[in-house]
Amino acid sequence: MRLYDIKEEYMRFMEMAESGEIPPEAVSDTLDGIEGELREKADNIACIIKQQLYESAALMAEEQALFMRRRAKEKTAERLKQYLSDCLLAVDIHTLETARNKITFRKSESVEIEDMSALCKSHPELVKQGALQADKPAVKKLLMSGVSVRGGSLRQSLNMQLK
User: Quick check: helix, strand or coil at residue 22?
Assistant: First the structure.
């Protein structure tokens, strides 16, 4: 019998007992039987709840362990990528192709904001509304057209591509 059914049976029985449909001597024994079933079901459900919480905690711990392992692998890959890039550029190799890999470098330009207050004073239109952040695409466009922007500059770099 389900806990819901036991609860319903208990409530019906209590209504019948209060209305006098059940003799007083039968109330105690029947109530004990229903309460015994209810306690057993409640105890079983409580065990299931504990088990679910235990498994949830174990999964969370495993999730955290996997996250830490993933982050360690990503950091190792980034360090190795930087190491490889530094070594290849030091000997002036910009393209390397083997049977398994193709390594190339591409030039990129990014906006570097060195002094936000100087940028705000000299070009307030380049600051995004509602936040103290520079509109980097607009700054880049001005810098590319030859306009000097106080507080901002273009940074050129070589980025290694691994295929």
Answer: coil
pLDDT tens digits for 58-80? 999 999 999 999 999 999 999 99
> To the nearest whole percent, how much of the chain has pLDDT over 70?
98
Please give the torsion angle defined by the CA atoms of residues 136, 137, 143 and 148, in that order, rounded to the nearest 10 degrees: -50
The residues, any chain, with a CB within 8 Å of residue 16's CB and separated by 6 or more, are 22
Q: Contact, 41 vs 48, CB < 8 A? A: no
Phi, psi of 5 (to 5 degrees): -65, -40
Q: Amino acid identity of 134?
A: A
Q: Please report where in the chains the tokens 């290694």 appear, as a residue.
A: 160
- Neighbour tally for 101: CB within 10 Å: 9
For residue 103, pLDDT beyond 70: yes
Q: Tokens for 123, please give them.
A: 């070009």
Query: What distance in Å separates the CA atoms of residue 152 and residue 139, rounded to the nearest whole number?
Result: 7
For the chain, the residue count is 163
95-97 and 102-113 beta bridge pairing: antiparallel
Distance CA 163, CA 42 (A): 59
pTM, two decimal places: 0.57
